[in-house]
Amino acid sequence: MSGRSVDGTAEVGEGFAAPQDLADPKLKRLILRLAVPSMAGLCITALHHVANAGFVGLLGPEALAAVSVAIPVFALVAAFGHGLGVGTAATVGRLLGAGAAGDADRAATTALGLSVGLGLVASVILLVWQDQVLALFGATIGMMPLARDYVGLLAFSCVLLLLQITCDFITIAEGNSRFSMWTLLGGFSLNIALDPLLIFSFDLGIKGAAWATIVSQLAALAAYAAYFGYRWGRVRVRPSVLTLDWRILRPMLAVGGPVTLSSGLSATAFALVFGTASAHGGDAAVAGIGIALRLLTLGMLPVTGFCLGAQAVLSFAYGAGDLRRVRAATLFMLRGALGFTLVYSLAMALCAGPVVGLFTQDSATAGIARGALILFHIGFAGAGFQYVLLVLLQAMGKATLAGAIGLAPQGYLLIPLLLVLSQRFGLTGVAMAPAIAIGLTALLSAVVLARELAALKRQGHATPPFPPRADPAVADARGPA
């Protein structure tokens, strides 16, 4: 079992549960050791949603449409977890880099406490105003009974969802993306094993898919309870350090708030896309656009995971004051992220027909899905610029600029495009809007990233590695010793 050493630093577990050394001088190897498991973990998450859709699709297009409508509902719930998790990860990473391990404990524990509170509020809202929420997110009269069955059960799992997300971010932030990956893989395997059993063998239908998700979430949280309970990592989670100290909360919320808003807008954007698609093409349009968005998410999550794992290196180095290391890590991340988005987009565009055929045999749904899939991935090809820029800005605590970039593809660019293009081109315009918004965001991100890299180069040459620093974001995050 691990504990604290005599100098107050964290002793960590050994083996697969041990975090990486975030000060390892072999930078590229360290980034890959952190980023690849994180990328694999989020890819597993994407496959989880795709596999669920595959099993539910066997129940018919109405069931598939009902699950598609549920995506933005729980994406909105997860938005609070992602915002809180990103803010916590950036803060914990900087604090560990600055040697403030006790404050890192406070930040992580407080984040988990906030996850429970937010999850309870979300559950109450989804249970009390279920029909209104489903209608808001595009559920038609025909799919409403199935959507009620699915969302009604998953509403009870909001606390589980938010806790799991926050635990993922904490372990990745302290350099233990491997444990996050294995936990997600275990949950995914359990869910996939339970899906056909509960949906078909026990004849639970769409409710079986919901129960499979809940059981897999409970299993993942049991793994995290062991991780923190046996002190396998650097961060110590314990109720005694739970705090509402603004010096701890401010940097977490400053970075996490825009992420939550961006994720929330993403969920709202999904609802607008589905609602507009329904108006122009009915249930087949909702199901077809839903398939294309799932496959876009399948590409988004691995590159997000790659950058998220590497962000631990950025936050730690920035907290320690080594700006040259921050810049070198960013450039390495950019090559990997941009290469992936280009290759994935090309693969989806060339194989749109066979890929869509895995989800539906309905000709109308398949035709819509193929067209949307190609359009989405034209814009996604340059998205690597956005993902790298976002994690860099979050690691440095530049919350306002990070928020402006994060809000672009699902907010102030997408919504006007969706309203204008859907009126001009109908269902084709619905698919064009996300593609153009993603592409414009990539161009904007490339310009801002070039500026940030130039600034890091100037400051890095003027500053020796690992000097004492007074980072306001770190200083404000430190509570009493």
In short:
This protein is an all-alpha fold and 481 residues long. It has helices at 27-57, 61-97, 101-128, 130-136, 144-154, 158-173, 177-201, 206-229, 246-320, 323-350, 352-357, 363-380, 384-395, 399-412, 414-425, 427-462, 472-477.
Set down the secondary structure blueprint.
Elements: H1 27-57, H2 61-97, H3 101-128, H4 130-136, H5 144-154, H6 158-173, H7 177-201, H8 206-229, H9 246-320, H10 323-350, H11 352-357, H12 363-380, H13 384-395, H14 399-412, H15 414-425, H16 427-462, H17 472-477
Plain-language structure description:
The protein has 481 residues and is mainly alpha-helical. It has one domain (33-463). It has helices spanning 27-57, 61-97, 101-128, 130-136, 144-154, 158-173, 177-201, 206-229, 246-320, 323-350, 352-357, 363-380, 384-395, 399-412, 414-425, 427-462, 472-477. It is globular, with a radius of gyration of 22 Å. It starts with 26 loop residues before the first helix and ends with a helix.
